[in-house]
Amino acid sequence: MPGLDLKFLERPRRKFYCPLCEKPMREPVQVSTCGHRFCDTCLQEYLSEGVFTCPEDQLPLDYAKIFPDLELEQQILSLPIRCIHSEEGCRWTAQNKLLQAHLSVCEFNVVSCPNRCSVKLLRRELPEHLQHDCAKRKLHCDHCGEQFTGEAYENHQGVCPEESVYCENKCGARMVRRLLAQHSVSECLKRKLPCRYCKKEFLYDTIQNHQQQCPRFPMQCPNRCGTPGITRDTLMAHVKEGCSTAMVLCPFKEAGCKHRSPKTGVARHLEEAAPTHLSLLCGLVNRQRLELRDLRRRMEELSGSRDGTLLWKLTDFSQRLQEAKTRTSGCLELFSPAFYSHNYGYRLQVSAFLNGNGSGEDTHMSVYLRVLPGEYDGLLEWPFPYRVSFSLLDQCDPALTKPQHITETFSPDPTWKNFQRPRPGALGSIRGGCLDESMLGFGYPKFISHEEMKKRNYIRDNAVFIKASIDVVQKILN
């Protein structure tokens, strides 16, 4: 029994052991010349090394004097023995000579798969292997009835053409797999199709709804002009701008022309109605001029002070003075932004003649205060009652020297027409450069001489600052 590690129930006597392998002898042979016994395989290996002496007493050996020891072999075969798989759990015990018969049925013995799949396993695991794991087991497909080996059956699963499956697009349809491709192409409600107009993909059951909104869907001009290539997203632009038969308004509609005609007739209308259009444009220009003047006035009111104080900066002083001296400027009088004496009070404005006016011409700078038409004139006391102060500010550094501002103050004379309630629009032409005395405000023709302005920093960085303040006395109401 070569190759087996025998497990005897009791220790065999020494005569049963091979001197070479020191294990119970297997197929023992005896040397007749010396009487020593060895395993047949152990002695053959020993002699194959070229040594022809007895391993025990080193006497010469003769192959003719070596013969099987059948009596000893029978004694060894009759010894009680456990199964070689006893440690794995086999409980078999019997005579040694019965071991081979037991191994042919032992559940713990390792055997090869009878299907020759190259797998070796315990005999007890063989039924499970043959039924479920063997790559070469024979199986029948429940759907098509074909027979396959285990490995081929696993590959066949999931591709069997006769297996019933649901549509991959989740439309709910169920069919055999061989019909699935045709269904996905021509029958499935959830298959994807490209829109023939915009080329984007949509589900079959939604593409018709899309085509009702598709921006590239071909449309016919509602005016039936016959223009090809109109799509839904260009239809409105075509009707408004490109259609030759569309009804359009006259280009002078903003000026007031109400004419409406096909686009092809616009040119003829423009030619025939030129005088009418010119008249309409003149009216539009006049209206816009009045609107601009009103907007300008409102802007000045919004940007002006409402606390009775105006600080007016006159830049480019030397250039403006030279223009006033040579009279190259169209307007000799400069005007400040409008300001209010107080909230909901009198609307005022300061003007200046850099080269003087009246008695101060060519030698002084003249400063005047003008009362303008205001929003709240109907609620105010007339004539204008408050004291007014003009100041030319000294722009020296206060840290180095004390500023010496030039200040003049006056109280309004109630008999002067300058302080009466102004008529709306009465001062509409003052910005045209008119020097009519009736248009002037009240002030100082000789506010400050040109020579005195040079003595200190009244002119700095080619600019001067004129300050006007209204001394508003709050009345105590009983």
From TrEMBL:
Pfam families reported for this sequence: TRAF-mep_MATH, zf-C3HC4, zf-TRAF
GO molecular function, one term: ubiquitin-protein transferase activity
Subcellular location per the Swiss-Prot or TrEMBL entry: Cytoplasm
Major subcellular site: cytoplasm
MATH domain residues: 307-470
GO cellular component: cytoplasm
Record carries keyword Zinc: yes
UniProt keyword terms in alphabetical order: Cytoplasm, Metal-binding, Receptor, Repeat, Zinc, Zinc-finger
InterPro entries reported in the protein's UniProt record: MATH/TRAF_dom, TNF_rcpt-assoc_TRAF_met, TRAF-like, TRAF1-6_MATH_dom, TRAF4_MATH, Ubox_domain, Znf_C3HC4_RING-type, Znf_RING
BP terms from Gene Ontology: cell surface receptor signaling pathway; positive regulation of JNK cascade; protein ubiquitination; regulation of apoptotic process; regulation of canonical NF-kappaB signal transduction
Segments forming domain TRAF-type: 101-154, 156-208, 210-263
Family: Belongs to the TNF receptor-associated factor family.
Protein name per UniProt: TNF receptor-associated factor
Organism: Danio rerio
